[in-house]
Amino acid sequence: MKQLTYIKTCALACLIAIGLLVQAGKSHAAGTETLTVAGGCFWCVEADFESVPGVREAVSGFAGGTTANPTYKQVTGGNTGHYEAVQITFDPSVVSRDTLLNMFFRSVDPTDAGGQFCDRGASYRTAIFAADDAQRAAAERAKTQAQKDLGQKIVTPILGASRFYPADDYHQNYYKSRERLTVTSVGLGIRKSVAYKRYRKGCGRDARVKQLWGSAAPFAS
User: Which parts of the chain fold into alpha helices (H)?
Assistant: First the structure.
C-alpha cells in the first residue's frame, strides 16, 4: 500500500511538472509578436533584423500572393503575386513594434515602386503586412514619420494580413551559412556567407540606403 501511494504521489508530481512546463511554453509564446515585411531580397532583411536585440527569429519566405506553397523560382518568375518577405518574431518587452517599423523604413528605399536596388520586379517590392488594427496603426505612424523625415513620397503599401509561406531551407540564414556553393555569380566554391556579402555590396543596398537616410540608417555599413 505504501509503495502504491508513493507511485501515485510521484505520478502526480510529474503531471504537475508537465503542466507547469506547458503553461510556461504558452506564456513564452504569448510574450512574442510577429511582424511580416517585404524589403527586397529576404536574405538581407533577415540578416538585418536578426541583429536587433529583442528579435527572437526572422524567417525568409513569401507573402501577398495567390499561389499556395510557392517555390522561389515561381515567385521570382513573377507569376504568383507574392513578395519576398520576412516574418519577424520579437519580444515587445525588449523592442517595440514601432521601433522595428521605423527601422524597417530606414533599411530600404521606400521611394522605389519597381523593386529594390539591383533586384527589379514585383516580388522585390516593399510592403508591410499588418496582422491587425494595432499593427496597421503602428505602420501608418511609421510611414508618416518616415515620409516627413525623408521629404520624399513613400510608396511602400500597408497591406492586410497575408498567408506567409517560409522559403525552403536553402534560403534560411543564408547570410551566416558556412555551406559552400559550387558556382555563383560572385565566385566559385565560396561559402554562402561570403556570397551574401559580395551580393549585398554589388547590389548597392547599403550605398543607396545611406544615400537616402544617412546616419539614420540602422543597418547600412
Answer: 2-30, 42-49, 72-77, 97-105, 133-150, 192-203, 205-213
**Cell representation of residue 181:** 556553393
Catalytically annotated residue among 14, 41, 118, 203 = 41
58: part of which helix (H) or strand (E)?
Answer: strand 55-63
Other Cβ atoms closer than 10 A to 120: 13
* pTM of the full structure: 0.84
Amino acid at residue number 110: P
Is residue 41 among the annotated active site residues? yes
- What pairs with residue 187 in β-bridges? 184
Grid cell for residue 104: 524597417
User: Which residues in 79-97 are b (16+ Cβ under 10 Å) and which e?
Assistant: ebbbbbbbbbebeeeebeb
Over the chain (221 residues), the average pLDDT of each successive run of 10 is: 44 43 45 97 98 98 96 91 98 98 98 97 97 98 98 97 96 94 74 95 97 96 81
